[in-house]
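Feature request, filed as a ticket because there's no other form

It would be nice if the structure record came with a short human-readable summary line next to the tokens. Right now we just get the raw output. Example of a typical job, pasted below so the devs can see what we mean:
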Amino acid sequence: MIDEIRTIYLDSDLDVEAYRFKGIMHKFPAHFHDYYVIGFIEAGQLALVCKSQQYIVNSGDLVLFNPYDTHSCEQLDGKTLDYRSINVKPDVMKKIAIEITGNENLPFFKQSVVYQSELVFNLKELHLKISQDETQLKKEELFLYFMEELIETYSDQTNQLQLAETSFEIKTMCTYLDENYTKQITLNDLSQLTGWSKFHLLRSFTKEMGISPYSYLETIRINHAKKLLEQGLKPIEVAFLTGFSDQSHLTKFFKRQIGLTPKQYMRIYLNT
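Raw output as currently delivered:
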């Protein structure tokens, strides 16, 4: 049996996370992130669904997720997958965009997958420098050169992020879920909020957002849980503070979305 490697490198110089998954067999359900994900496949083959579009991603393909791009993925043919990515928060991306283009709008990447992109080589070099704790100057040079080409080639430089084309009712539900994620929310609550029947709101929300209201709520909770774990809070405390029924409930959803248990994720930050 091949041992899985799941590692997160935290780079305080660049203010980014670098993920490395090697030899994994894991199905990630539909979810989203509140940050940009820029990654590539090193080995194996990935079936990806992003914003209702289906892709087969191979070694050498570049993957680009904007914040709130709903996606799910799993490796194909029962084989393992090797994958690397960097995660860039919107505030960091905004600073980069201003430096590179003078445009204060957050870039919006038009393609979820760029097949056989030449930028994969540059991203791998950057990822290796981050994991090897390279000097700040070298990393910054690589990072800015990479981001410059990425933004200018694949971005339309318009801020089309969260819920740009959604209806008023869907926006209202998302705002309610965002602001009340610690509570026990029911379809009846959302139905009363919008005036829609439970079936209509469930069907409309899932069609427009690419994810069900329940999955949206769990994703919001996981994103908040990550931030608390990064601060050193114990998983049992985090579960209570983010609306999960108990620690095992948190662990189940956290590992399914992030690929690590809450304890594994917390230890990465405690050891930095």
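Something like this underneath would help us a lot:
Residues 5-154 form a domain with the Jelly Rolls fold (CATH 2.60.120.810).
The chain has ten helices and ten strands.
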